[in-house]
Write a structure and sequence with these properties.
- By secondary structure, the chain is an alpha+beta fold.
- It has three domains: 2-156, Yope Regulator, Chain: A; 169-188 and 196-298, no CATH class; 320-478, 3-Layer(aba) Sandwich (Trna Endonuclease, Chain: A, domain 1).
- The protein is built from 14 helices and 23 strands.
- The chain has helices spanning 2-15, 73-91, 130-153, 169-179, 213-222, 250-264, 297-310, 315-318, 332-344, 379-382, 409-415, 431-443, 453-460, 464-469, and strands at 19-25, 28-34, 41-48, 54-61, 96-100, 113-117, 160-162, 186-192, 196-201, 206-210, 229-232, 236-241, 244-249, 273-276, 279-283, 287-292, 322-326, 349-354, 367-374, 385-395, 420-425, 447-451, 474-478.
- The strands form five sheets. A seven-stranded antiparallel sheet has the order 7-8-9-10-16-15-14, with helices on both faces. Strands 1-2-3-4-6-5 form a six-stranded antiparallel sheet. The chain has a five-stranded mixed sheet with strand order 18-19-20-21-22.
- Strand 11 (229-232) and strand 12 form a beta hairpin.
- Helix 2 crosses helix 3 (130-153).
Length: 479
């Protein structure tokens, strides 16, 4: 892809002023796209695999001490926020923002560097084709625009660090009191030429930026005009973007609104917002705030299920009224094949193998999946996407699956030298098994997830061709 991509778009990228370099990495090559020499933002395309067929795209953000003085956490947060806002507002590309810890010593709240990833647009592990190549170049165009904002509008290159809490102590005290936190636990920095400041509550996972009103207005006028379909859920607001959904928590939104009211002394009922994968931005008059929140598909699907249960009369209007019918007796082997076909089409999963034979004893695994997770350790060398092996166990049961129906999960993972466990059932989980899996996931020693009939049907809703393939175990009707 490297030669083809550069050949096809070299003139265009040159016209934008991109500096392009290629370097060797452990199992392939890396293309670095920089908008200027010494830019703190680098778009990186890693190409790996036996035939250099596997590609992944990410953005690395880190300033240098000889360009900016003091701790630079504020810069890394502001720059990454600008790029996330521009990519979503201008290109409808939804990223995730990840902190990179200091490789030697870590201070609470310090942002040594930041990484933007593209799992929503399936650019973790992709093949070169016209559609994906265009998407990469479209992102590069968005990065170029964001760089202009960063360099020219905010004049970051001339900014100086000032840590003068005295002049901001009044509103910091108000904010700490409102959040119920100690003011000394807040991170606060102010820069000049131009004047802007940053405050972060590590406990509440809220970052506040005070910048020139003209900049906020620029965001509102040029990047927040996209019209999205909105569904008001019970706990979360759901936004439809292109062919996918995001959502954010009402309680987090109210927290952001209250902070804006505290800072700007006015009530804003209609607050502009912009949602990415792991949080959302809200915009006031001279402040914008980032609130961390899991806005990905998993929470959105849960909220859609609540909407479906509570607003059955409206559901046919919002979505096709598709009803699924499962056979009373399911063939275990066919259910495994259906599971495999569903997993193959999941973002972030690169390979799925069937390792058991239908209804034979499986030792706790029916399938093995290779998937990607985000890991920012040694990110400059290894990149943010790490391939792991996950064991998949399928249960084609009519009744709910309980804890006694699954093999000891920890032993199974260890015995097969895996990193995670994925349980997929054709029915539901008992409360005991649900709590057991949830606790294992919270501990974080292994990657843990599960699908019940609901999650399977949610995916089949968008993949009806698979239902046609597996008519012997599931059918559907459209009303």
């Amino acid at each position: 892809m490297i030669d083809e991509l550069l050949l096809r778009y070299r003139d265009y990228l040159d016209s934008l002023g991109y500096i392009i370099n290629v370097e060797d990495i452990e199992d392939g090559r890396r293309v670095l796209f920089d908008t200027s020499s010494g830019s703190p933002v680098s778009v990186r395309l890693d190409v790996s695999g036996e035939n250099l067929e596997n590609h992944s795209l990410w953005i690395y953000i880190r300033t240098t001490s000889w360009m900016f003085n003091g701790d630079r956490s504020d810069l890394h947060e502001l720059i990454s926020s600008i790029f996330a806002i521009v990519l979503k507002g201008l290109k409808d590309i939804s990223v995730s923002i990840h902190d990179v810890e200091h490789p030697v010593e870590t201070f609470e709240g310090e942002v040594y560097a930041r990484v933007l990833t593209f799992e929503r647009d399936n650019l973790i592990d992709f093949q070169s084709n016209e559609e994906n190549d265009y998407k990469v170049v479209d992102i590069l165009h968005g990065v170029w625009i964001a760089s202009i904002i960063m360099d020219n509008v905010l004049k970051l290159a001339s900014g100086n660090l000032s840590i003068d809490r005295h002049e901001s102590e009044e509103w910091l005290n108000k904010l700490a009191s409102y959040l119920g936190e100690d003011i000394d636990e807040f991170l606060f920095y102010k820069r000049t030429e131009p004047d802007w400041s940053w405050c972060k509550s590590v406990t509440s996972e809220v970052s506040i930026f005070a910048i020139e009103e003209e900049m906020i207005q620029f965001f509102k006028s040029n990047l927040l005009k996209s019209k999205f379909d909105v569904i008001k859920g019970l706990n979360r607001e759901i936004i439809k973007n292109k062919d996918y959904y995001n959502s954010f928590s009402y309680s987090r939104l109210e927290l952001g609104k209250d902070i804006l009211k505290l800072l700007e002394g006015r009530s804003n009922e209609d607050i502009p917002y912009l949602v990415i994968e792991n949080g959302f931005f809200i915009f006031g008059k001279s402040h914008f705030i980032f609130l961390k929140d899991d806005c990905r598909e998993i929470n959105t699907n849960d909220e859609l299920g609540i909407v479906k249960d509570n607003y059955k009369d409206l559901w046919p209007i919002l979505f096709p009224n598709i009803q699924f019918f499962w056979n009373d007796k399911l063939d275990g082997g066919r259910f495994e094949e259906l599971t495999r076909d569903l997993l193959i089409e999941e973002d972030g999963i690169s390979r799925v193998r069937i390792v058991s034979s239908g209804n034979d004893p499986d030792g706790g695994r029916d399938l093995e999946a290779e998937m990607f997770i985000i890991n920012t350790q040694d990110v400059e060398v290894l990149g943010p996407y790490r391939r792991i092996k996950v064991l998949v166990q399928c249960k084609a049961y009519k009744k709910s699956v309980n804890k006694g129906n699954v093999t000891d999960i920890r032993d199974t993972i260890e015995n097969h030298n895996a990193h995670g466990y994925f349980l997929i059932v054709s029915s539901n989980l008992t409360t005991q098994l649900y709590n057991h899996l949830s606790l294992m996931r919270e501990k974080g020693h292994y990657w843990i997830d599960w699908w019940t009939r609901k999650e399977i049907e949610d995916r089949l809703m968008k993949k009806l061709h698979l239902v046609e393939k597996y008519k012997d175990i599931i059918t559907y009707s459209v009303n």
